[in-house]
Amino acid sequence: MPQISILTPLGDLTVSEDDGKIVAVDWGRGSLQERTPLLDRAREQLQDYFDGRRTGFDLPLAPHGTAFQQKVWAALTRIPPGETRSYADIGREVGCKAARAIGQANGRNPIPILIPCHRVVGADGSLGGYSGGEGPATKRYLLDLERRALQRRTQNP
């Protein structure tokens, strides 16, 4: 499976491709490095994201998971950049009253950042957990990064 590693302000991220779609973003440096046109696009878009020039992504994604997880991850992609939703909000959208189940699906997201699981917070606005990088500090960093990028965009259209 082709993959490339990208140095970001949060450390290395490794992006993996299978059958012409992104299937994983992992924290850390991967041992296999094989460039493809899609992985080069992903690298460029992630670099633009971390540089504050992009808040969304235009890449084909194919996360592996259960039907329920797929529904949750699809809902995450509809959260606008710079905004958050609660676990309960996502639950209502996918027809599930168990916030814990939403949290578990969120935590199993194999394509963080591109599928923005960092945009899901507690009902009281607290960050909640985050399984990537340095945990909640990484989640806060990503949310702040998006908010700053959106502010720059509105100040300099």
Task: Produce the secondary structure layout.
Layout: E1 3-8, E2 11-18, E3 21-27, H1 37-50, H2 67-77, E4 85-86, H3 87-94, H4 99-107, E5 120-121, H5 136-155
Parallel strand pairs: 4-5
Antiparallel strand pairs: 1-2, 2-3
Helix pairs in contact: 2-3, 3-4
What is the gist of this entry?
The chain is an alpha+beta fold. The chain has 5 helices and 5 strands; from the N terminus they run βββααβααβα.
Report the helical percentage: 25-40%
Helix and strand content put the structural class at alpha+beta
Round the mean pLDDT to the nearest integer and report it. Answer: 93
Low-pLDDT windows of residues: none
Beta-strand content bin: 15-25%
| Alpha-carbon Rg, integer | 15 Å
Can you summarize the main beta sheet? 3 strands, antiparallel
The general outline is globular
User: How many strands appear in the DSSP assignment?
Assistant: 5
- The DSSP helix count reads 5
Read across the widest sheet, the strand sequence of neighbours is 1-2-3
Distance between the termini: 40 Å
Write the element-wise H/E pattern from the N-terminal end onward: EEEHHEHHEH
Any overview of this molecule?
The model has no long low-confidence stretch (mean pLDDT 93). β1 and β2 form a beta hairpin. The radius of gyration is 15 Å and the shape is globular. The longest helix is centred in the last third of the chain and has 20 residues. The chain has a 3-stranded antiparallel sheet, covered by helices on one side. It has a two-stranded parallel sheet with strand order 4-5. The protein has 5 helices and 5 strands. The chain has 157 residues and is an alpha+beta fold.
